[in-house]
Write a structure and sequence with these properties.
Elements (H helix, E strand, L loop, with lengths): L4 E10 L3 E10 L4 E4 L3 H29 L19 H18 L7 E5 L5 H12 L5 E5 H10 L9 H10 L2 E7 L6 H16 L4 E5 L3 H8 L1 H8 L5 E4 L9
Parallel strand pairs: 4-7, 4-8, 5-6, 6-7
Antiparallel strand pairs: 1-2, 2-3
C-alpha cells in the first residue's frame, strides 16, 4: 500500500538569525510533518564540524611528525613551501620528490646524500619528505648524535631494549633520514654503528638520506668510505647545496 506526501513552505523564525523559509513535508505513512531548520544554523553547524575534523586531522599529523623525528620548528615545512630561486634549488627539490614518488609507487628508491652550507634548506627538504610520507609509511628523521646515543644506551644493564632491536628498527624503516653528520666525534665506533645501520638498509634495498654540512672528502672521513660506497651504488645520489644561506633573510 502506498503513501502520500504533502509539501509546503512557511515562514519560521530562528532565535539567532531571524525569519527564514521553512520547507515542510507531511508524510502520511507516519502521520507527521517533517520540517527543515534554519539554513544559517545548519551551515554554521556544518562549518563547526568541518573545523573540528580539520583540527583532529592537524593534531594527528603533528603527532605523526613528532614520532617521525620532525622538530616543531620544521613541522610546517613541505616540499611545496621550499622557495626555489635558481636551477640548483630546483634540482634539489626534484631529487627529494623522486624519493617520495618512488616510495609512493613502491618502486626502487634512490639513496640521497645532501651536503653543503648551513641554512640552505637541507633540513626543510628532509622534513618535507617526511611530511609527505609519514601518514602511510614508516619513516624517521634523526640526528646522527642522537642515533649513536640511542644505540649506546642499550649497553646499560637496566635498559629495556637490546642493541639488535634498535638496529633492526632503523634498518627496516621505509625511509631513514640521518642529519647532523659531522657534529659528533667521528670515532671508529660511530663509523661502525652508522655502517651497520646503512648496510642493513642497503641489503634490504631500503632508501637512506644522509645530510651534512661537510664537503664530500670530509664526509668520507667522518663516516667512512664503506658507508659512502653503499649510499652511492646504482644511482647519482649526491646533491650539493652550495648557495647562500636563507637564514636572516626576511
Amino acid at each position: 500500500m502506498g503513501h502520500s506526501e504533502q509539501q509546503d513552505v512557511v515562514i519560521a523564525r530562528c532565535d539567532q538569525h531571524g525569519q527564514f523559509e521553512q520547507k515542510r513535508r507531511y508524510i502520511d505513512l507516519i502521520d507527521k510533518w517533517v520540517s527543515t531548520g534554519c539554513p544559517q544554523c545548519s551551515h554554521e553547524a556544518h562549518e563547526q564540524d568541518r573545523q573540528a575534523e580539520q583540527r583532529l586531522h592537524d593534531e594527528r599529523q603533528q603527532h605523526r611528525l613528532r614520532e617521525a623525528g620532525v622538530p616543531l620548528r620544521f613541522q610546517g615545512k613541505t616540499l611545496d613551501s621550499y622557495v626555489i630561486e635558481h636551477d640548483k634549488q630546483q634540482m634539489a627539490v626534484a631529487a627529494c620528490r623522486r624519493v617520495v614518488d618512488a616510495i609512493s609507487c613502491e618502486k626502487i628508491v634512490p639513496n640521497l646524500i645532501l651536503i653543503g652550507k648551513p641554512g640552505t634548506g637541507k633540513s626543510h627538504l628532509c622534513c618535507g619528505i617526511i611530511s609527505a610520507l609519514c601518514q602511510d609509511y614508516k619513516v624517521r628523521r634523526i640526528d646522527l648524535p642522537d642515533l649513536i646515543r640511542e644505540i649506546r644506551a642499550t649497553w646499560t644493564r637496566d635498559h629495556g631494549k637490546r642493541e639488535e632491536t634498535v638496529l633492526d628498527y632503523y634498518g627496516s624503516l621505509d625511509l631513514l633520514i640521518i642529519e647532523e653528520i659531522g657534529t659528533g666525534a667521528g670515532s671508529d665506533d660511530e663509523r661502525a654503528k652508522i655502517f651497520q645501520v646503512v648496510n642493513r638498509r642497503y641489503e634490504a634495498m631500503l632508501p637512506t638520506v644522509l645530510v651534512s654540512n661537510l664537503d664530500m672528502d670530509a664526509l668520507k672521513k667522518e663516516i667512512g668510505e664503506r658507508v659512502i660506497d653503499r649510499m652511492r651504488e646504482g644511482s647519482r645520489s649526491l646533491v650539493v647545496f652550495d648557495w647562500q644561506s636563507h637564514r636572516g633573510v626576511a
